[in-house]
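In the previous chapter we treated chains in isolation. Here, by contrast, the input contains two separate entities that must be folded as one system, with a combined length of 1092 residues.
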Amino acid sequence: MASRSALMPVLRCVRRRMPALSARISVQSASVARRSFSSTGSTSFGRSSVCSVQYTSENYPEIQRDPRFSKVTEEHVQFFQDLLGSGSAVLESVTNDAGADDIEPCNTDWMKKYRGHCKLVLKPGSTEQVSKILKYCNDNMLAVVPQGGNTGLVGGSVPVFDEIVLNMSRMNQVRDFDEVSGVLVADAGVILEAADHYLAERGYIFPLDLGAKGSCHIGGNVACNAGGLRLLRYGSLHGNVLGIEAVLPDGTIVDDLFKLRKNNTGYDLKQLFIGSEGTIGVITGISIQCPQRPKAQNVAFFGLESFEQCQQAFRNAKSHLSEILSAFEMMDNSAHTLVQRVTGNKRPLESEYPFYCLVETSGSNSDHDSEKLQAFLEDVMEQGIVADGTLAENETQINSLWAWREGIAEALGHLGGVYKYDVSIPLKEMYQLVEDTRIRIKEAGLLGDSEEFPVIDVVGYGHMGDSNLHLNVSTRHFDKRVEKVLEPFVYQWIAERQGSISAEHGLGIAKKKYIGYTRSDNMIGLMKQIKKLYDPNGIMNPYKYI
Amino acid sequence: MASRSALMPVLRCVRRRMPALSARISVQSASVARRSFSSTGSTSFGRSSVCSVQYTSENYPEIQRDPRFSKVTEEHVQFFQDLLGSGSAVLESVTNDAGADDIEPCNTDWMKKYRGHCKLVLKPGSTEQVSKILKYCNDNMLAVVPQGGNTGLVGGSVPVFDEIVLNMSRMNQVRDFDEVSGVLVADAGVILEAADHYLAERGYIFPLDLGAKGSCHIGGNVACNAGGLRLLRYGSLHGNVLGIEAVLPDGTIVDDLFKLRKNNTGYDLKQLFIGSEGTIGVITGISIQCPQRPKAQNVAFFGLESFEQCQQAFRNAKSHLSEILSAFEMMDNSAHTLVQRVTGNKRPLESEYPFYCLVETSGSNSDHDSEKLQAFLEDVMEQGIVADGTLAENETQINSLWAWREGIAEALGHLGGVYKYDVSIPLKEMYQLVEDTRIRIKEAGLLGDSEEFPVIDVVGYGHMGDSNLHLNVSTRHFDKRVEKVLEPFVYQWIAERQGSISAEHGLGIAKKKYIGYTRSDNMIGLMKQIKKLYDPNGIMNPYKYI
């Protein structure tokens, strides 16, 4: 290992070649991106208003309302009002049309892609209330959609027909925190960012971070097994969640809020709820292992000439940065250019490159981390793996660089409809899907610069550290011809490479019928068994998942 | 942050106060400890021979053979011989008494505590064979005990009556390894140490390490959700295992060997198999995320005056060592003295202390890690948290220091029978259980220096980083009076503090009846539901678990 002084001449050279332009990038687009995930329906960012959103029942005419489910009556409403108290408890009911506007944010997703016909939203304030609600619904065959921050991408948290929405926003208290072990116990309805702020004050960090943190609920994160930006460093929720409190459709409380790291006493049933998308019960509380908040953070941003070089840079980052590598994100020039067009911000690098990578380190010692990062930079620059790059030198610059990555989804939404595919693919072929899709759409004559072409661009970005690609087809307007060219092509392509058609956003209604591209008939059969075991009446989040 | 040069005078001072005695400690006890976990029954280390081990059926007279199960007939044996081939496939059968010795290692656990009456051991060579075996057993009501390295502590991997042993040792091949992602796919019967050696050659490490690594199987590790020495750093198997291949009792193959980090397509059923102890199916293969092998490793060993100081040292270690802290182990002076008595090695510290801690760092940069460790040492020495300590300066010394921790279980076994409790307790009360137990046994007049007292000593050690205590009551011989004083006292004590009666070794037969001290009736009911769902005939590892 070379000493620090021996590295200095090289580092100066690296720095010369990497102008610190990031200071000039506004952080605005990051905060806009976060606002856009609001569940209040107030986001208008170039989109139609709530009322013009097409009903899911119209977009999916093949889905019929299950006639076994009861319709909500005044008697039902009376039961819920008696249980929860009128006012905040029952947000809206069939008996009161005056406040119909208030119910719509719970009926519609933030992308304005899915819209239900729900007439009753319940906001329980305790696990016992959730238990009584579900038991009553189960006994009376009333279908239920559990809803957290309503920030999903697959329509999982909004109703299709007249299901009752069980909104968890009133259960938003931290129950317990152990300053020595870092174990947090909290209600499901705590907003992720609020949980992280609470932890930050105590020197800890929530082991999950994602763009929707300002709106999404930690219970919803667990129900959807959210992955996010730093899975590479902190691991998955299956490893970090130590306990769950949940309610089954028959009202049984799954009281498994264990607070220690090790507990080998029987089947780890809580794992079934992680990623179950509200189909077997409602998560009301979680306990989670939180790591110490890193004292030092660094972000570097590169331009690269090929995806092969992105892979080389990733391998070098793993080797040099090892335990402090907390994110390795990739985006192509199409994605980058889009953000630039929408935000009007100056690009962080002077020239354009086919690919860009963002590398983040999180560690406990600023000097050590900088030294490791600089050794990495020196290596990738000297080997010609990276064409150009910039290093953030303070928190504002870190946020600015992240905005180029986090702002992509928002920028895409600004242009019109987006076909989004969040998929896992073995790393070496990860970007090939974007190229193959682009060719396919071009060959179908659907991509072009003028209004006659529905498709504006095909872009790729994602969490390279997790082999997780976001393939996005940006359109001027949703068009059935585009959909036909994309599906099942994309799913078949992934299945041939043993990838996953849903890396982190789940199945919901969007991917329900495509699960067979990732899971075998055996596995699907076993999953249906579990659904039937816990929810024999099928009242939990119907028409979705499997 | 002080610069490196500013720290130097203090570090020299720290070094002076910490004599590097570890070089003088023989590594012998570590290798002995590992040998002791052999499944061949060849370990005699002060113990009775296999044939004198009492049958579990005699020790647990309340357990009766389930009359629904068939007895193995010549026709059954013929089926298995036709399927597997005679010779290595069917190790021993009812029709051949000549080789009866060969079957005994599969009938008895390494502690010589549990012994079954099994007459047929099957060693399948493929997942398809496992499927055919289980389907046949299920159709013919033949009970089955899946067996890996047979290194457990709770009697989970040996039969009670005449169950057929399904030994996985022939399925021992690495199937695939991805050098970029670090994902290993391997048969369940690969020995942990062999998997780790394979990975070491490629710059990776298996994310689990434990004393029995030379014998235990990775499939068994997953089936028992093993925790081990470095869970603190690499996290649990629930987070690291990406996929599982398993066979259900009806022969269904759970083909879920996914190889990427993210896959949100339906219920994560593989999680049910992690920690299921062979009660719902047999794991035949796993895919697992392996981290990069650390380039630098350091070990420090301290003497401390109180358990309060152990906690302070742990808090300081988390703060100073953060991402490189890979183990924080605690042992009391009784445990330490015992190892010294059995091995005859010179203690690593000159004086005796009530407590000792072993701190390990694993990182990618030796200079950085040493600097962090020294800042930590400086802090705990200056604050008077640590009374004395020594730092290993090479791999031999690292192994020597670890031998003082890893050799405890072996040393205990050398003296006679040991009542072992592997439990999770909130950190601040963790050691109190040892003290309360010692008082209770003393008050019962069972502890003393001469032969008339059954108990030699009550010792405590464990994984402090995971709140995981190993309470061990060392006896001259097993004695029902001791057992009555210990149980259910220990379990009640843990239940009152919401700990776990089994932190990592599982339930097996030893803790089956005590699960209610950690799990609620609701949870136990839900677990029984799962058992019934997957194994309606109850043929898988009967008489155990729940």
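Chain B touches chain A through 93 residues (CB under 8 Å). Residues 328 and 359 of chain B are 5 Å apart (CA to CA). Compare these points with the single-chain example from earlier in the chapter.
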